[in-house]
Amino acid sequence: MKKKERNLYLSNVDVEEALDLYFRRVDEHLYGLDVEKVQVIESQGRVTASPVFARLSSPNHNAAAMDGIAVKAKTTFGASEANPMRLKQNRDFVFIDTGDPIQEPYDAVIMIEDVVEIDEETVEIIKAASPWHDIRPIGEDIVAHEMIVPSHHTIRPVDLGALLSGGILEIEVYRKPKVGIMPTGSEIIEPHEPMGEGKIIESNSRVFEGLIKEYGGNPNRYSPVADDYGLLREQLLAAVEENDMVIINAGSSAGSEDYTVKLIRELGEVLIHGIATRPGKPTILGIIQGKPVMGIPGYPVSAYFVFDTFAKPLIAKYLGQGVPNRPRVEAVVSKRIVSALKHKEYVRMKLGMVDDQLIATPLNRGAGATMSLVRADGILIIPQNSEGVEAGERIQVELLKDMQDIHHTIVSIGSHDLIMDMMGNYIHRQNARYHLSSAHVGSLGGLMALRRGEAHMAPIHLLDEAYGEYNISFVKKYLSNLDMALIKGVKRIQGFILPKENPKNIKNFHDLTREDVQFVNRQRGAGTRILVDYKLKENQIDGGAISGYDREMTTHMAVAAAVASGAADVGIGVLSAAKALDLDFIPIGDEEYDFAVPTKYLENTMIKLFIKVLQSHELKESLEIMGGYKFDRAGEIIIIN
Amino acid sequence: MKKKERNLYLSNVDVEEALDLYFRRVDEHLYGLDVEKVQVIESQGRVTASPVFARLSSPNHNAAAMDGIAVKAKTTFGASEANPMRLKQNRDFVFIDTGDPIQEPYDAVIMIEDVVEIDEETVEIIKAASPWHDIRPIGEDIVAHEMIVPSHHTIRPVDLGALLSGGILEIEVYRKPKVGIMPTGSEIIEPHEPMGEGKIIESNSRVFEGLIKEYGGNPNRYSPVADDYGLLREQLLAAVEENDMVIINAGSSAGSEDYTVKLIRELGEVLIHGIATRPGKPTILGIIQGKPVMGIPGYPVSAYFVFDTFAKPLIAKYLGQGVPNRPRVEAVVSKRIVSALKHKEYVRMKLGMVDDQLIATPLNRGAGATMSLVRADGILIIPQNSEGVEAGERIQVELLKDMQDIHHTIVSIGSHDLIMDMMGNYIHRQNARYHLSSAHVGSLGGLMALRRGEAHMAPIHLLDEAYGEYNISFVKKYLSNLDMALIKGVKRIQGFILPKENPKNIKNFHDLTREDVQFVNRQRGAGTRILVDYKLKENQIDGGAISGYDREMTTHMAVAAAVASGAADVGIGVLSAAKALDLDFIPIGDEEYDFAVPTKYLENTMIKLFIKVLQSHELKESLEIMGGYKFDRAGEIIIIN
Lengths: 641, 641
Known about the structure:
Two copies of one chain form a homodimer. Helix content of chain A is 26%, strand content 29%. By secondary structure, the first copy, chain A, is an alpha+beta fold. Chain A has five domains: 15-32 and 176-318, Molybdenum Cofactor Biosythetic Enzyme, Chain A; 35-58 and 140-174, Molybdopterin biosynthesis moea protein, domain 2 (Alpha-Beta Complex), CATH 3.90.105.10; 63-136, Molybdopterin biosynthesis moea protein, domain 3 (Molybdopterin biosynthesis moeA protein, domain 3, Beta Complex); 329-402, Beta-clip; 443-640, D-Maltodextrin-Binding Protein, domain 2, CATH 3.40.190. In chain A, the strands form twelve sheets. In chain A, strands 31, 34, 35, 36, 37, 38, 39 and 40 form an eight-stranded mixed β-sheet that branches. In chain A, strands 16-13-17-21-20-18 form a six-stranded mixed β-sheet, sandwiched between helices. Chain A has a five-stranded mixed β-barrel with strand order 22-25-24-26-28. In chain A, helix 4 (204-214) runs parallel beside helix 7, helix 10 (418-430) crosses helix 16 (605-614) and helix 10 (418-430) packs antiparallel against helix 17 (617-626). The longest helix of chain A has 19 residues, at 300-318. Chains A and B meet through strand 6, strand 10, strand 11, helix 3 and strand 15 of A and strand 6, strand 11, helix 3, strand 15 and helix 4 of B.
């Protein structure tokens, strides 16, 4: 492996300063984005380059506002209940329908409900009509030459209606800004290529494409380029030529394969390299031939937030639009979040309404955690000068999902099992309004969350060593102040998760102490960890004698993945996790995976739906395929306190 | 004109009841919407038909979390500051970059900042590494076989990233529901056709197309069909065959050209005809061959709300999604709104933040008012059993625009002039964050709005008869409790607006009393109305002697439109309105059109922007083209109290 040069000098520019500086520099170059004409019927989502004035009035004629008869108002004067007046067709009146034009000499409408038909050509009225009564005058809605939409307006469906009614067929809009996307890196492969050692599937460019389209731009993705200066240079020159702005992805960390900053410096100018943000620090903001060229880090979450912070406002600027910001909502944060003073941080949060309080819980903060973006309900922005937030603090969260969805979400915090994703899937299928949100913090963490009023339910599987019983005594112990119930869930099999064929012939807990055996554990507070410690105690084994006892994973699947990859020789987990990754499994025993729920929620529509799905045929079928589950008591409710 | 049959029997079914009844009937037919496979990279906006599980883990290998060296943890035990340890390349360590795979026998990473390079193949460390330190294990983000997205999930850009990273190339999604749109009516013309007597440009179908696309459906618009039973029948049969649901537009009023209800009854079943909603009463909900077929009224605003109430949820149902509801916000209503008890009403509202209070003002309630939909910031729904709301009442408003935009809107309530649209256009061009919202209620109405704290400014042109002076004395009189300023605007010319060539030879106010002359007036409280009354008084003419004195229009353009159409022979208004419609004009005199503003707003960024635009070159150029304006004092600030 070659020795590499290191560029250790990244700046740490404040995000707002960076935005300000960058935008002032690119501003000089952003005027004069081309204007094009489009058909009104194809203009949805486009941004007007100039105001649009009506060509015609609407209505374009004086029109009857009701079905009835058109009369000359003067003719009807004197008609009353005491003195009904008869009118002759085609002399005093004509029948007319809503929207029909009012012709001379008529100048008023009497609605049909106020007209009595006497015979074929005669009607009777008992009330006079005032001039222009029940007539929609020309231009009542749109007057020719009035402005229908201003410039820099994004065309919505309702605007289409007004434009067409005003006689407009074509409008002038801004050309969509072209955004070049260059994925780079020798480790990158396209999704359809076979996975190889050390390879990473290129995905950020597709996320960018999607976001660019949402913001009204035209994405232009180039094929991935390896870390070769010459190839990168050639592609970058082409990209700058063909687009209004360019995003180069990956290779922007201060590492030896970092050509991006050198390239931008050579072909143009690097304004900033290194932003005080987490994730996303090694961002590069540059200009080549007057066009913005950005180096965005490769880690998916970094890529997302850097794009959101810098590329999105640029696209908005090209289109003369304000930056589309996410709606904000106030919430209470459920756990302490620590943040360094040196950077601004974007923390992904889950949100839930519990007892009319909006609770926000942080998700995994690793910069590569794509799933944290998928699962996030909102973002908490911790400013650079802040050390974080305390549990219970009121915070502002930017919404990534609809508040409506969040209101209709069951908040589950506690122990992880594969069935929770399946439950969420079936709940949403049963009733599209509802969602299940699962946070995996372990069984004890779940009970603590219930105690603090942050969840509707906690999945737990806590073995009471003294009684050999599951769950009930823990609920009594930790939640003595709340009226609690236990919804029975499933019985599942726990055991040793081993590589296929169990090459190291691991059979029992004593084997874990072997020098050649690497163990991987669960986190403290997890029901599985409690089971492990119970078993070790039963076997009189000290955790310290096990290599890897301190290595903690937070889900069954993570344990299975570690074993499958060779990062560990054995772990303890559920059969379904081993089965999912085609691993060997030696059962230790059954355990009960139940749901602790405050009794006040039992009548809640969402919880009733949860129980219904828990007892459903579809779930049973899925569990049978997943393996290792028994569900004869599923949905049974036990009142504890 | 033929005599027509009348169907006077419309029901008045409660909206919620209608929805419930209709959905229970169509439910039987909605299962089994086809599923199709799409490429992940083309799946944005599509709805998953089944949950998607990862095929690969991500990372797919144990990866270095930092740039540095990969070591065997055991080897490093004992290293400390007091006891630095030297390591040899390729025996004890290798250099490694972030993301690179960890190869046997290495099992930990020490970041480069903690490594001192001694020579070509030797480094020194002062701290031991624990096993798996700074390594991202396989599956840290996504574990093979875990659920990435559930079913009935709409794919967003972030989901694309996770799916690709999980090795998924294709997913199963629901086919987009096909929605057939049939515009009908003999008065309908296509936008490109020449306007004719009594014709109406077909526009609702395009609004539906846009909305259907937004909701994830596939619109399928048919060419407009005249009111011919045979032709309609043929097209409806084809539409039912080719689509999942059909919308028939127009012709659904209880009028003689109403074939829609007969047709649906003949080919299938009419469940409901007539809903207790305003606008939108004559809606038809039917079923043909198991598919929903709706008759939606032709008036644009009725069409919009009926589509929103009935078609939108149906499309959501097809896709297994919850109905996308508009966000709600609480506001204070600025004027009394009366509503009948017999129907649910959708009132279009303008919203503005004034002194941290969100104020809602109703717009024009005519069902044909397309521009009210374009201009509306929100909808106030008045339930069926409510008689309306009082001024000052707190109400829930459904947002049609972003709250961000509403926060950045200058609220102007008062007298109308063409320059206000132009001002709004230029303000938004100057700074895409800002908007100008204009409500036309007349000069006095504007002052009252300021008094109630509902606006930032009131455009006024009120002539003080005693002093022959404009505006200042009225501000003093009506707003004595507020510190007020007057921003000078423009001088504009008022006069008689007359048909081209002035065929009736109208020269002065006395001519208005002629029997052959139809006048059209402005509404009480309008500055122009005050001018008219002043002039009549000056000429000793009684308003009652003028035919049409009671006929009130609310804007200059409406007056001009009435004259242009022949609905009136003369009106009083500004030169620019006459010029816009190519009408004759006899000047009466100059008047001053200024802006009354509470002094506390003068330092407001938005107001300063307003003044800047008022004094801008672009505005002056536009005013010159519009005609009749003088602007030498524009932007001057006079402190009144």
